[in-house]
Structure prediction request, 130 residues.
Amino acid sequence: MVFLDIWRSFRSLPLWVQIWVAGILVPVNSAALLFIFQPAGLWVAILAIGAMLPNIAIMLYERGLSKMMAWPHLLPWGILVLWLVFAMPEGSAAYGVYLWILLVVDALSLAFDFPDALKWFKGDRAVAGS
Prediction:
């Protein structure tokens, strides 16, 4: 079953990666939905969540997680990080705190994603746990 294969692949990752992805990266980016009515909140949500959605198709196709999953993050989160650095929207205090957390999380993610995308490009196409 494909979902069991994906789960096994995810669980084969180092524990810190599992915590990073499931406990920080996905929740922080998904939380953008809570702020869609703030200034530019819809665009923040589109970039934050839009970078993650293609990974569902990649996981289903590959029946697990691979370095290919870094590619969909590069452009949307790259744009989002630069935007937040140079023109962070103003809104409620909670939104401001959220945007700073999002900036840090996505900048850190990109620091992992660029090398992973390059490794995938150079031929490292292994699916974790297989």
User: Anything to note?
Assistant: The two ends are 14 Å apart (CA to CA). The mean pLDDT is 98. Residues 2-121 form one domain. Helices lie at 2-12, 15-30, 41-50, 54-62, 71-87, 93-121.
